TrEMBL record:
This is Disease resistance protein. One of its GO terms (molecular function) is ADP binding. It comes from Dioscorea zingiberensis. Belongs to the disease resistance NB-LRR family. Residues 441-512 form the Disease resistance protein winged helix domain.
Length: 915
């Protein structure tokens, strides 16, 4: 961890020397000398990576001092840059140009003199710290006599596209008998008399790390369970319980209620809506990680008690919570894994598969079993230990090093897990440690969006370019490695391409992240609003949730502490604009400012002074405009304005330079005229209305990968196509045309003209009328995802689209005005998900032989003239889920279990949801 901090300081020194070489001549030698000293420290720390643990207090103290001096070097450099920028931007007023230059020169010399003194002090401290290595016996590296025992980390390379993320839930062994027992409790009530038809609550009880959540998810994924319940929802409750948030999670899971609709409802009205929606349904709710009786008391009010066999599956560490929820159902107590099950689970995680076998080499078996015995049958401990060992070479020497590191006493309960988790952290390579500690900014049980997380890592400086890969691609590899090491968990995977949609971190591992971040002065998470102050020179501060708003309002922080902050995240709280501005006033060195879900209404003009800012998160705020000073944020990489009232971007957006990578909002207009080089490194431009800006701007954004354009009239269609032909990296395009304009079908074509390259788009979303699809032999074969909305096609689109060999997701929403559609023989060879929505004229749908061979998800909604499911559906054995919503009564009657005419077509599908 300290190595990554020193690395950042070395980079900053190098950049400063390169950029200010003329002005810094007087202190240049001092800067180079300090950089050289820090480079030696960096090399030493990299060699000793992961070794500062156990009782080696001298080594710990030395590393802490190195970290502090590197932090100070960063602060000095950033403060210098800030002062120079402020001085150069200071208006001259009515002074003569000669006098202004004189004052400017004097000011710069004063700043330079101050920098020289500060660098000299830091360099002196750095030299003293370096000397202390040998003075206090921390000099020797390697060998048995060394105070620092080196731990080697093995780098395992993998292909990003081929690497399939390992979902931990699928790897826990020993649960088969538990799954069978719980499935029986859930679905056999209807055969046991009316008494068992009541809404029963089944609680899974056990200490943290036993796999309660994993077991609950495995039970819910059982095909019999999916088929039995018409409505299912998984809701994370967590230790920090907020009634409103839980109700909103339930509404989103059970009713697919939009964020806008939820905001309109009071808490009581929201309860009524949920309860009314569930009436008449046989539902299954999974309430994960319930800590208190109060949490259950809030939730139970929205779950109607009807005698239809509805069930609630509840996981908790407190058996009293389960008894309180349902005194008639005894808690299901989860026990530790046995010796054989523990060994089996360890091997699944630790052994690199050879010939599809997860078998431990015989020469490693005794060492491995000795390690596993330390875990005491706790699945989380075994999985994390296995993830650690999986990154080591499969040799006796490497495994013995890990075994020697396990020097804790066997303990009872959750305390037994902590040393294993701690060891896994210390064995992370230096570049992953800050990435892992960064999870401490998230509240418990947060579902983590990987796109946002990767952008935050990049803004913090944790990710460095690697060859021709983008930093986003390198960050993706880091995420995959943390999953492989079982430090984070996959929640949901995209069924189309295997990409992870959401992550989650176990609360025990989150505790490790928070505590270690505090120890290393990396990030401070106040335990409650009564905590009096920010730690001395902490780098990051996370204040999340309404209960932490008083921390800001009451001013429980000191100026000296806040001046060193480079990251502030204040999410999901309501704080007045003036209070927030006062709180942020002295934080001149901020790189990341995330105000998601706060109540601020305005960004002050002073935001432009935060010249180091890389990430500005305004999602879910009440901000309506951006100040013109936004143009001064030339280091900004991500500007997130989703779910705000910001609809106009100021002219200054074109002056933000080469660093802006992601610009996202809702229905944005851009003022002004693009500059000569208009945002050449921009990768994401989301939800922007077309206008004069695109004529001289869009074609220069050659790094664009994702583009979402609104209000594309016929006037702009042709010049826009010319611009798109220059964007070689573009793979995702959304095009929304007004009702009186036409979407050009050439967006889907491979046709070329003498002046325009064809597009190689992979994901395409087209909203608006399309006169006719291109001929099938001229369609872009690269397309994997296609959404056609309000296309009003007169010819059957399935005939043409069925020949796209790579198409995996297709949604037709009010896209076809005909009465019949046909999936031709062998059509849609790779399609995994098909959604047909609001095809109001459709009466007949046919599926020919061997069509849709890989279809997994089928959704039919609001096709009000469709009479029946197509023949041939019963032959699609890959189909896992059918969702039917707002379809005609006659259509739904044909799907009745064992009675409907179409039941035979769908009885093989594990999950059928009829709304």
């Amino acid at each position: 961890m300290a190595e990554s901090i020193v690395s950042l300081a070395v980079t900053k020194l190098g950049d400063l020397i390169a950029q200010e070489i003329v002005f810094l001549q007087e202190v240049g030698d001092q800067l180079r000398s300090l950089r050289d000293e820090l480079q030696w420290m960096q090399a030493f720390l990299k060699d000793a990576d992961g070794s500062i643990k156990g009782g080696n207090e001298r080594a710990k103290l030395w590393v802490n001092q190195v970290r502090d001096v590197a932090y100070d070097a960063q602060d000095i450099i950033d403060t210098y840059i800030y002062k120079i920028h402020q001085q150069r931007r200071r208006p001259s007023g009515y002074l003569s140009s000669t006098l202004t230059k004189c004052i400017t020169c004097t000011s710069q010399l004063t700043i330079l003199h101050e920098l020289g003194n500060q660098i000299a002090n830091v360099k002196k401290r750095a030299e003293e710290i370096s000397a202390n290595r040998s003075k206090y016996g921390i000099e020797s590296i390697g060998g048995t006599s060394s105070d620092i025992s080196i731990i080697t980390t093995t780098t395992i390379s993998f292909n990003r596209k081929q690497y399939q993320l390992d979902v931990e839930e699928a790897n826990v062994v020993g649960f088969d008998k538990h799954v069978k027992t719980l499935v029986k409790l859930l679905i056999t009530a209807e055969n046991q008399g009316s008494h068992d038809q009541r809404r029963a609550v089944i609680s899974i009880v056990g200490m943290g790390g036993l796999g309660k959540s994993t077991l609950a998810k495995k039970v819910c994924s059982n095909p019999d369970v999916k088929l039995h319940f018409t409505s299912q929802a998984l809701v994370y409750v967590s230790q920090v319980f907020r009634a409103r948030e839980i109700l909103e999670r339930i509404a989103k899971c059970a009713m697919a209620m939009s964020e806008e609709k939820m905001k309109e409802l009071s808490q009581e009205k929201l309860k009524e809506e949920i309860c009314e929606s569930l009436k008449g349904r046989r539902y299954l709710f999974v309430l994960d990680d319930v800590w208190t009786r109060d949490a259950w008391d809030v939730i139970k009010d929205v779950l109607p008690e009807e005698m239809n066999g509805s069930r609630v599956l509840l996981t908790t560490r407190n058996a009293n919570v389960g008894v309180h929820a349902d005194r008639q159902s005894p808690p299901f107590k989860l026990q530790n894994l046995g010796e054989d099950e523990s060994w089996d689970l360890f091997c699944k995680k630790a052994i690199h598969p050879t010939n599809s076998m997860d078998k431990c080499p015989s020469h490693l078996e005794s060492i491995g079993k000795e390690m596993v015995a330390k875990c005491g049958g706790l699945p989380l401990a075994i999985i994390v230990l296995g993830g650690l060992v999986s990154r080591k070479e499969q040799t006796v020497e490497e495994w013995r090093k890990v075994l020697k590191s396990l020097k804790w006493q066997l303990q009872e309960g959750e305390d037994q897990i902590s040393p294993i988790l701690d060891l896994s952290y210390h064995h992370l390579p230096y570049y992953l440690k800050p990435c892992f500690l960064y999870f401490a900014i998230f509240p418990e049980d947060t579902i983590i969006d990987p796109t946002t997380l990767k952008r935050l890592w990049i803004a913090e400086g944790f990710i460095q370019s690697r060859g021709e890969e983008t930093m986003e691609e390198v960050a993706e590899d880091y995420l995959q490695e943390l999953v492989h090491r079982s430090m984070i968990q996959v929640v949901e995977i995209n069924n189309l391409d295997g990409r992870v949609l959401f992550y989650h971190i176990h609360d025990l591992i989150l505790d490790l992240s928070i505590s270690q971040a505090k120890v290393e002065n990396f990030l401070h998470v106040p335990k409650n609003s009564e905590e009096e102050n920010i730690l001395h020179k902490t780098r990051r501060l996370a204040l999340n949730g309404q209960e932490m708003s008083s921390y800001i309002v009451a001013g429980k922080y000191s100026t000296n502490s806040s001046q060193s902050l480079c990251t502030v995240t204040c999410m999901d709280m309501k704080v007045g604009t003036s209070k927030m501005v006062r709180f942020l006033h002295d934080m001149k060195l901020l790189r990341v400012l995330n105000l998601r879900g706060t109540g601020i209404k305005k960004l002050p003009w002073e935001i432009g002074k935060l010249i180091h800012l890389r990430y500005l998160g305004l999602e879910g705020t009440r901000v309506e405009t951006l100040p013109s000073s936004i143009a001064y944020l030339t280091n900004l990489q991500t500007l997130n304005m989703r779910d705000t009232a910001i609809y106009v971007l100021p002219r200054g957006i074109w002056k933000m330079g080469n660093n802006l990578r992601h610009l996202e909002g809702v229905w944005l207009s851009i003022k002004g005229t693009p500059s000569v080089e208009s945002l050449p490194n921009l990768q994401t431009l989301s939800s922007v209305k077309v206008g004069p800006w695109l004529l001289n701007g869009l074609g220069k954004m050659t790094s664009l990968r994702k583009l979402s354009l609104l209000e594309v009239t016929d006037t702009y269609a042709e010049p826009l196509l010319d611009c798109l032909g220059k964007l070689d990296n573009l793979n995702h395009l959304s095009w929304l045309a007004p009702f009186d304009s036409i979407v050009p079908s050439s967006l889907l074509s491979t046709s070329q003209s003498h002046h325009r390259r064809h597009l190689q788009l992979q994901e395409v979303w087209l909203f608006g009328r399309i006169e006719r699809l291109p001929e099938s032999n001229r369609m872009n074969a690269c397309i994997t995802l296609l959404i056609l909305h309000s296309s009003s096609l007169e010819e059957d689109p399935l005939v043409t689209l069925g020949k796209l060999g790579n198409l995996q997701f297709l949604r037709l929403y009010d896209a076809f005005v005909g009465e019949e559609m046909v999936c031709l023989e062998r059509g849609f060879p790779q399609l995994k998900e098909l959604q047909l929505n609001s095809l109001n004229s459709l009466k007949r749908w046919k599926i020919k032989d061997q069509a849709l061979p890989k279809l997994r998800h089928l959704s039919l909604e609001s096709c009000r003239k469709l009479v029946m499911l197509p023949n041939g559906l019963e032959g699609i054995t890959s189909l896992q889920e059918l969702t039917v919503n707002r379809m005609p009564p006659r259509f739904k009657q044909r799907l009745r279990v064992n009675e409907g005419e179409d039941w035979g077509k769908i009885q093989h599908i594990p999950s059928v949801k009829i709304w």
